[in-house]
Amino acid sequence: MLDNSQIYVRDVKMPEDEFLKKHEQVISAWPTGKEIDLEEAVAYNKSLPDHKNMNKMLKKYKAEKKTSLYPRSGTPILEQEIELLQGLNDVDVYMFPFTTDSYSRNMRFDLAQQALDESNRTGVAKLNGFPIINHGVKNTRKVIESCVGAFDSRSSKEGQAFIAEMSFASGISAIPQSMFGWVAGYDKRASPQECVATAQYSARLSGYYAERGHIINHATHGWLANGVIPTYVGIACEILEALLSAGQGAKSFSPMLNFNGNIAQDLGEFRAAERVYRDMLDKYGHADCEIPGIIANQSFLYSFPRDVGMAFGYINYTAMLGALANVPACSVKTIDEAIGVPSLESHKQTYRSANWIYNVVRQQNFQIESKDIDLEERMCYMAVAAIVDKVMELGEGDVAVGIVKALETGVLDCPFSISQHLQDNTLGVRDLHGAVRYLEYGNVPIPQEVREYERGKIAEREEYEKRKMDYKVSIADFFTLSKGTLIDPIEEINYEEEQPNEYAEAIKKNPPTVVTGTIGVDSHVIGTKLISRVLREQGFNVVAMGAQTSAEEFISAALETNADAMFVSSLYGMAEQDCQGFRDKCIEAGLDDIILSIGGILGVGKHDFADDEKKFKAIGFDHVYPPESPIETTILDLCKDLEAKGRLVK
């Protein structure tokens, strides 16, 4: 474990003169930073009406016992973004998590500008969000002033500081304080200390505004799980994000909780969350901080139904749970989430449906009394409090130090994380009723009583299904919600006799080498981790690059390992830009004969897979696969290609 002399971050408020020097450095990264004037920005924000202030809007909805939609929005073309927001106003949406594009989140403003120019030229979105830095203060204020409602801009570690500066100066009154989202789900290389320091800067910026009378809300996201896992670590990490930010002067925090699908567990965890959040803030010296309300979120990064009817069921189930949890805001995915960036019409259809549920259910003020919910609430509270206390113990009372040590040792951990700095030693499965339980705890300090409870629940499923729970079950459980179930029907979930691989002996004799990874700045990692694991089980040598891998890194790894093939994954829609010239670069490097395969969501917006296949084969890929293609199919195709090239001999 690192000793304190090796840890440079501390829970100490940044002096204002130091902050202002860093501020000048941050806004110098792109020319539009010159539009930011802090004193003018404070005055501008204080002049805006209350409906532009997220802290006030959340408190208003909570007091009125209403639930507001909290949808994502963000498209690169200014006029289209304004049209989208005004369209959302038409269906009573007044809170807007404002999605910045992936290039901006990773400080690639040059690439964002190229794609923005192309978007403006063609009228077709070439980015998966709003490039706020490239648009600057003037354009972004046009967006903010075009509609009724408050904004919460989304970012990742690389772009957080500058995007926070631009957001607040433009009138955006909230931002995720999601350092655990960065370290677990968005930033492959960023160290825990770098993530802590970045979070402290955006919190200090928020504190600067708070000292001058303008309160900015921080939606704490916690750990964004890429697999089925209880929310215990997620809620604990949200509290730690709040404690870290409060130390820099931030004053308003909203826990953002995800659903897992089981009603008793979800409602129990929501009831526990606000209590334990408040108690931990008070316990560790921040009783003056506000919690204007919990923001409910759709499920974690689970697979989403491609069928529109099932998609409506998914989002309406989320809306129902949000209404029953009595939260002031709830985010639901759009019905075409699985297809690409949603259209305005799909936004409207989705939110009309969700609002119907919010309005009807909340008007009834229906209170659920359930021993099952009470039990889940108690288990959640105990687990979360134990994790937070352990982190603070590791840091000897310093939350910044404690976070760094906890991530290093696996006290904070979750499955299928993107970061190369984490343990990734935990695993979860669903129990017989679809609630999520730990299967492997790693070093997460879950209390013994909670462990015994979870083991009992897992044993029930094992007894019913007559098999042990393992990682294959965990992966299967990740996809069940997209199929309209929590666990597969018993006739489907038993392992079928695996078909013998006709190439198994050939692979064993001469194991081919495959480089796997996610292209560009895409952080969706579960697909590439899953295919890497299956390839290894089949006997291949696997060079797993993980997420956020450039074409040059793929090629370098293939050269170093004399690889036979590359499996490229992408889910964020911008693979076309990332893969331009991919085959040509391979040829230039001497990899003339390497087998190239790509799969996932390969374009922004609705598009036909046949067009994707044509486009990426023209780029030079041998195989192009749509989302959720069977891994067995991709491996069989690879084996056939290797056989044709004489590299596998049956």
Describe the model.
By secondary structure, the chain is an alpha/beta fold. It has two domains: 4-372, TIM Barrel (Alpha-Beta Barrel), CATH 3.20.20.240; 504-644, 3-Layer(aba) Sandwich (Rossmann fold), CATH 3.40.50.280. Helix content is 50%, strand content 10%. It has 26 helices and 15 strands. The strands form four sheets. A six-stranded parallel sheet has the order 1-8-7-6-5-4. It has a five-stranded parallel sheet with strand order 12-11-13-14-15, sandwiched between helices. A two-stranded parallel ribbon has the order 2-3. It starts with 15 loop residues before the first helix and ends in a 6-residue tail after the last helix.
CATH homolog superfamily of the largest domain: Methylmalonyl-CoA mutase
For the biggest sheet, the summary is: 6 strands, parallel
Give the beta-strand count.
Answer: 15
Radius of gyration: 24 Å
- CATH class term of the largest domain: Alpha Beta
Q: Detail the poorly predicted runs.
A: 493-499
In CATH, the topology of the largest domain is named TIM Barrel
β-sheet strand percentage: 5-15%
Helix content: 40-55%
Helices and strands: which structural class? Answer: alpha/beta
Distance separating the two termini: 49 Å
**Overall number of structural domains:** 2
Please give the order of strands in the largest beta sheet: 1-8-7-6-5-4
Shape: globular
